[in-house]
């Protein structure tokens, strides 16, 4: 039922699936994917299967898998190796399983662990892979580093960098679902709270915007002067984390970097401060330092751990420092994942159609794919737009 609900709210992916059911462009192609196993992901992998692919799926976070969705996909012929609450060892076992059992032609990743594992442990397999895609900012950063170091062995399309992905998924999806996760975990009132958002990329923008919409007084911390300046002009207070730590009630990290909130910040926080992470990996909040500082730790609600410091102050960590929107809630709404996963679907199709023509580099999503996704989404929403006249086209092409 959850998958059916998602499909009903993902008209772009549904239309792509219906268009290619007969021609089956992915016939004979094996796809290994590491994604958050949610109802929206189920729609994507079912679409790939309906269009001819063999699909193997592992989770991209030990705590984000929806077990009922994984079970439903397994019954439907998807080879799923994911369950909620995996250990780190089990998490990487599942990734190796979909590599070894699949011997994939195409790889789809969210975070970069699949790409990195293939390159480090299965270099011969990497040589025969047609190409891959990457769903999130963290993974794209890692892949660009691999390209820079000259170790990337196949072309990868940075789906995260598609306009119809990051401007909507990262901003509106992360903005809404992060608050959803915080509220489900804590049920605190957002209005009147001082919320510190670390990072003003597209995810940070979305979180800050939505927090303000719920009545929070938002503070942004940044290392990039341009983004900091933008946050100021968007009406937010901007200050270093050292200063924000003293006044914040709720802290949300969304940077893709390590130890953004660390020991010196914990020591300055108010009693009752709440910490949440919206970045892909559980490295943005220095949990090890918090564990070392605390004299006691206890779980007081699902996904809420209380750390008591030597002076009696209490700090509350949500979702063990992992993605709060996918651990404590359901992740992004189906409507926004519709565009992200339409980009995934069309990027896989593009890689297959251009087999052997692309160098082992990180590529942007082709503009025609971005435009096609936007057109299909507008059509599904019943929205029409203008088109250029021939005279207008000639005018824009002239100098």
TrEMBL record:
<feature type="binding site">
    <location>
        <position position="110"/>
    </location>
    <ligand>
        <name>substrate</name>
    </ligand>
</feature>
<dbReference type="GO" id="GO:0006730">
    <property type="term" value="P:one-carbon metabolic process"/>
</dbReference>
<keyword id="KW-0554">One-carbon metabolism</keyword>
<feature type="binding site">
    <location>
        <position position="165"/>
    </location>
    <ligand>
        <name>substrate</name>
    </ligand>
</feature>
<dbReference type="InterPro" id="IPR036291">
    <property type="entry name" value="NAD(P)-bd_dom_sf"/>
</dbReference>
<dbReference type="InterPro" id="IPR020082">
    <property type="entry name" value="S-Ado-L-homoCys_hydrolase_CS"/>
</dbReference>
<dbReference type="GO" id="GO:0005829">
    <property type="term" value="C:cytosol"/>
</dbReference>
<feature type="binding site">
    <location>
        <position position="257"/>
    </location>
    <ligand>
        <name>NAD(+)</name>
    </ligand>
</feature>
<dbReference type="Pfam" id="PF05221">
    <property type="entry name" value="AdoHcyase"/>
</dbReference>
<comment type="similarity">
    <text>Belongs to the adenosylhomocysteinase family.</text>
</comment>
<feature type="binding site">
    <location>
        <position position="38"/>
    </location>
    <ligand>
        <name>substrate</name>
    </ligand>
</feature>
<feature type="binding site">
    <location>
        <position position="222"/>
    </location>
    <ligand>
        <name>NAD(+)</name>
    </ligand>
</feature>
<protein>
    <recommendedName>
        <fullName>Adenosylhomocysteinase</fullName>
        <ecNumber>3.13.2.1</ecNumber>
    </recommendedName>
</protein>
<feature type="binding site">
    <location>
        <position position="170"/>
    </location>
    <ligand>
        <name>NAD(+)</name>
    </ligand>
</feature>
<feature type="binding site">
    <location>
        <begin position="199"/>
        <end position="204"/>
    </location>
    <ligand>
        <name>NAD(+)</name>
    </ligand>
</feature>
<feature type="binding site">
    <location>
        <begin position="278"/>
        <end position="280"/>
    </location>
    <ligand>
        <name>NAD(+)</name>
    </ligand>
</feature>
<dbReference type="GO" id="GO:0071269">
    <property type="term" value="P:L-homocysteine biosynthetic process"/>
</dbReference>
<feature type="binding site">
    <location>
        <begin position="201"/>
        <end position="206"/>
    </location>
    <ligand>
        <name>NAD(+)</name>
    </ligand>
</feature>
<keyword id="KW-0378">Hydrolase</keyword>
<keyword id="KW-0520">NAD</keyword>
<dbReference type="InterPro" id="IPR015878">
    <property type="entry name" value="Ado_hCys_hydrolase_NAD-bd"/>
</dbReference>
<feature type="binding site">
    <location>
        <position position="135"/>
    </location>
    <ligand>
        <name>substrate</name>
    </ligand>
</feature>
<dbReference type="GO" id="GO:0033353">
    <property type="term" value="P:S-adenosylmethionine cycle"/>
</dbReference>
<dbReference type="InterPro" id="IPR042172">
    <property type="entry name" value="Adenosylhomocyst_ase-like_sf"/>
</dbReference>
<feature type="domain" description="S-adenosyl-L-homocysteine hydrolase NAD binding">
    <location>
        <begin position="170"/>
        <end position="331"/>
    </location>
</feature>
<dbReference type="Pfam" id="PF00670">
    <property type="entry name" value="AdoHcyase_NAD"/>
</dbReference>
<feature type="binding site">
    <location>
        <position position="169"/>
    </location>
    <ligand>
        <name>substrate</name>
    </ligand>
</feature>
<feature type="binding site">
    <location>
        <position position="332"/>
    </location>
    <ligand>
        <name>NAD(+)</name>
    </ligand>
</feature>
<comment type="function">
    <text>May play a key role in the regulation of the intracellular concentration of adenosylhomocysteine.</text>
</comment>
<keyword id="KW-0963">Cytoplasm</keyword>
<comment type="pathway">
    <text>Amino-acid biosynthesis; L-homocysteine biosynthesis; L-homocysteine from S-adenosyl-L-homocysteine: step 1/1.</text>
</comment>
<dbReference type="InterPro" id="IPR000043">
    <property type="entry name" value="Adenosylhomocysteinase-like"/>
</dbReference>
<feature type="binding site">
    <location>
        <position position="325"/>
    </location>
    <ligand>
        <name>NAD(+)</name>
    </ligand>
</feature>
<feature type="binding site">
    <location>
        <begin position="136"/>
        <end position="138"/>
    </location>
    <ligand>
        <name>NAD(+)</name>
    </ligand>
</feature>
<dbReference type="GO" id="GO:0004013">
    <property type="term" value="F:adenosylhomocysteinase activity"/>
</dbReference>
């Amino acid at each position: 039922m959850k998958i059916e609900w998602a499909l009903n709210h993902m008209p772009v992916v549904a239309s792509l699936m219906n268009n290619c059911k007969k021609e089956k462009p992915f016939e004979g192609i094996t796809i290994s994917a590491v994604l958050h196993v949610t109802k929206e992901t189920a729609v994507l992998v079912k679409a790939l299967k309906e269009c001819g692919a063999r699909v193997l799926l592992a989770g991209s976070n030990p705590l984000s898998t929806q077990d009922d969705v994984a079970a439903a996909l397994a019954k439907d012929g998807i080879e799923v190796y994911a369950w909620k609450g995996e250990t780190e060892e089990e998490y990487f076992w599942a990734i190796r399983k979909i590599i070894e059992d699949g011997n994939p032609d195409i790889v789809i990743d969210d975070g970069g662990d699949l790409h990195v594992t293939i390159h480090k442990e299965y270099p011969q397999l990497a040589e025969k892979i047609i190409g891959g895609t990457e769903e999130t900012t963290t993974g794209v950063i890692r892949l660009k580093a691999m390209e820079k170091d000259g170790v990337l062995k196949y072309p990868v399309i940075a789906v995260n960098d598609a306009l119809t992905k990051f401007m909507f998924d990262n901003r509106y999806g992360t903005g809404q679902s992060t608050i959803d996760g915080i509220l489900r975990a804590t049920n605190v009132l957002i209005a009147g709270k001082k919320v510190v958002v670390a990072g003003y990329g597209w995810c940070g923008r979305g979180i800050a915007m939505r927090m303000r919409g719920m009545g929070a007084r938002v503070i942004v911390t940044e290392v990039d002067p341009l983004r900091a300046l933008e946050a100021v002009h968007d009406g937010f207070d901007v200050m270093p984390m050292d200063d924000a730590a003293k006044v914040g009630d709720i802290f949300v990290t969304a940077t893709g970097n390590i130890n953004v909130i660390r020991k010196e910040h914990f020591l300055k926080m108010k009693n009752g401060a709440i910490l949440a992470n919206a970045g892909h990996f559980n490295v943005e909040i220095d949990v090890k330092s918090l564990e070392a500082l605390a004299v006691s730790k206890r779980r007081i609600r699902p996904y809420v751990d209380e750390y008591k410091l030597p002076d009696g102050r209490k700090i509350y960590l949500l979702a063990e420092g992992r993605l709060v929107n996918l651990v404590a809630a359901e992740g992004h709404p189906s409507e926004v994942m519709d565009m992200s996963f339409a980009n995934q679907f069309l990027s896989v199709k593009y890689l297959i159609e251009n087999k052997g023509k692309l160098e082992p580099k990180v590529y942007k999503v082709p503009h025609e794919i971005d435009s096609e996704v936007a057109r299909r989404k507008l059509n599904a929403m019943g929205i029409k737009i203008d088109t250029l006249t021939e005279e207008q086209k000639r005018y824009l092409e002239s100098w």
